[in-house]
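BUG: 3D viewer hangs when loading the predicted structure for this chain

Environment: internal workstation, default settings.
Expected: structure renders.
Actual: progress bar stalls at 90%.

Input used:
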Amino acid sequence: MVKHTILCVDDEIDNVDALERLFRKKYSVLKATSGAQGLKILDENPGVALIISDQRMPSMTGVEFLEKAQKSHSEALRILLTGYTDIDSVIAAVNQGQIYRYLSKPWDTVDLANTVDQAIEKYEISRELKKKNADLAKALNDLKSLDKAKSNFMILINHELKTPLTSILSFVGLLNESPLDDEQKLFVNRISRGADKLKSIIDDVLLIVKAETNLLKPQLAQVSFENIESFINADIKKVLGFKHQKIAKKEMGAKVTADKELIQQVLNRLIHNAAKFGYDNTQITVGEEHKGNEVFFFVENIGPQISAEVVEKILRPFFIDEDVMNHSTGMGLGLSICQSILSLHNSNLHIESMHDGVRVSFSLTTA
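Structure tokens produced before the viewer hung:
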């Protein structure tokens, strides 16, 4: 345990000796018999936690001394001892010396000891609070630096990756318009597929960074998602056809407040995952459930269950686990993007295993 230092100042040597005997077991006690000597001791001991000073001293009063001490040792608490009922000196001590407490002489030993203990406790709390504030300030600066890094990352992605990618896609388009033999067409087709995949990854990364840096602003309106077939993308249709799966709708059509394009993207990603990890020749169910002023959208498949431990992992950006995901493609951003989009709607994903598959759901407020 830290043994704090206190400074006792009184022009009567017997008084400072008495104070030393009272406090030396618990604290390191420094003594001075004048304000000038007290200031010199303070200069030599920057870690003083508490100053106890008499008011009536020659050359420099206790108020004058404490006022000077406050400027050099602002963290140290101050107690004034006064032997007479001079309200003006007490007021001056409060206003100028910013004292913690004043006590009348002769002091009550128990009262003085308790006051000193309380002052030291307050000093410790104040120092701890100052340290925590400094830690919070550092954490805030770190967050600001992180946001700046994310913004710089977006600039880098946009310029350093999208610019050459645009050139690749442009020249691939020109090659497709040129006379090519079968082998050349195969090569150009593979280049085109790879470039399209890279563009998709870049767009996903930019989307999640925009959401996390509050640059993605949802355009809220009263919308519904009854006509699922109109916005299901080609990739989903390809998976559904390959695995002989069908989509079944359940009570779709509620009006909710949302950004239609962003929520359609969420539903696309959830349906794509449900199809990709669902069994062949099964059904993907997309539906709504009404609870109060909220509509819960859900996507269910029939397939392998997911443990709670794995659910926590797959919601992290860039998570890839071949044993869990059964594949090694992509960057693990799909569900993270859904989370980022839903956070803009004050919602989030809920993933749970059913007896024969997995259910993923989220809620939106009714219009």
